Amino acid sequence: MQSTRRFITGFLISSCLVLAALIGFRLAAQPVRDWSRLRGFTPSPQVAKLATDTTMTDKATRLFYINHPEVLGREAFNSACSDRGERTIVLGCYHSPQNGIFIFDVSEPELAGVQQVTAAHEMLHMAYDRLSSDERARVDTLLLDYYHNQLKDERILKVIESYKTSEPNALTNEMHSIFGTEVANLPAELETYYQQYFTKRANVVAFAAQYQQAFTRREDTIAAYDAQLATLEAQITANQAALSQQAEALRVDRPRVEASNDQETIDGYNQRVTAYNVLINKTNILVDQYNQIVEARNKIASEETQLQKSLDSTVSPE
Description:
74% helix; mainly alpha; 11 helices
């Protein structure tokens, strides 16, 4: 019995040693694969600048470069990112695991900052992939708590809402990238978490705000124009109704006035005609103002449409 017990004990020790060796091999395999991906890789100056501009830490830069990131023109980008699952204003795609990050080359000067936010956004997808199950559960809890209790930005809320339909199984993954690159003030625990990826996350958020401003400024202008148009339309409609009533009254009274020799009656009628003509002139001025504002509004709306097209790789430039 004693020898048998020793044999069993020895077998268990041997099994544990083998298991430990297998675990050690798995832990070592990822750095080896990373080393293989980075060996001989030299980022383009444009890609290197994106890492610098977004203040990626050494860890984040490594995750970024492991994916051999590229900034691509329309056709090449569409080919590299043929799966259109993720469609946000930040145009890029990440092929998991570590099989590539591709960024759409947005050259419109007013949209400067898009490529930086895209680079950071896609790198964070890679980072999320690398989280352990325990760490991911912790981070997911932080993200969801912020989303449900503190997030007030209507634009970002709408983006998250769209992901509930388009990618419901990747919701926290998307929150992880969006919050990290587009939300200025996060709870302390999330801020601390993102410090492992950015030395100055505020720079990334500033890039996001920079290109969003190109849209916000136009949307605010359009809203102001729409308010003016609504006021003018109400006034024009009221004037036209009054003119219609006055015209009918003048038409009905004209035969009586023409047949009258009473100067006071004639003068009163002429005063009404004068008032009618004054109201016509005022109304015509309002109509001219209305048309000018419509033209200005449509010009701004057209500019916004062109900016949207600049961000859509599926739309050919005009």
